[in-house]
Amino acid sequence: MQEPKAVIVSGEAPESDDEVTIRAGMSFPTMLVQNTCGTIQGEALESDDENNSVSSVGYAVDPSTCSYTSEVRVHKVEKSCVKYNSLLHRKLRDCNKSLDRNIRELMTTTVNNAVEQLVDTNKQLVKSELTLQEAVCKMQESANNFEQALRSLQRTLDEDYFHNIKI
């Protein structure tokens, strides 16, 4: 059996199932044809069923990477989402992994710093709350003492104590 080869079709994809036999390959359709990779120029035939069409632009493959099947199957065991295994794609994947790691590190560091700041702020707020509660207790105690002093003064004034004093 012929190994499936990717074909780039410039233009519009065929819109009916009986025009071409397409078998799903490595996450994109491949045509079972005798020729090697190539580019087909032009536009596919029109049909009434436009909702079921598959645009070939999303599945375009560079002809130099047509031997993807044997290389990708080895890596597919390691990583199921690997479609292409060219040097450029490997470098892009490495850069993406590095970028992902750096972003995760940045986010983790940022979140950890924010958590530490929130914990410190929370500790300061708890100290402030305790200080305020202590101040409120002292103020209430002072208010009670002031009320007692006013009552004592009022009793003293009501008893005519000062009227009996002669200088």
Automatic annotation (TrEMBL):
<dbReference type="InterPro" id="IPR017245">
    <property type="entry name" value="BLOC-1_complex_su-3"/>
</dbReference>
<protein>
    <recommendedName>
        <fullName>Biogenesis of lysosome-related organelles complex 1 subunit 3</fullName>
    </recommendedName>
</protein>
<dbReference type="Pfam" id="PF15753">
    <property type="entry name" value="BLOC1S3"/>
</dbReference>
<comment type="similarity">
    <text>Belongs to the BLOC1S3 family.</text>
</comment>
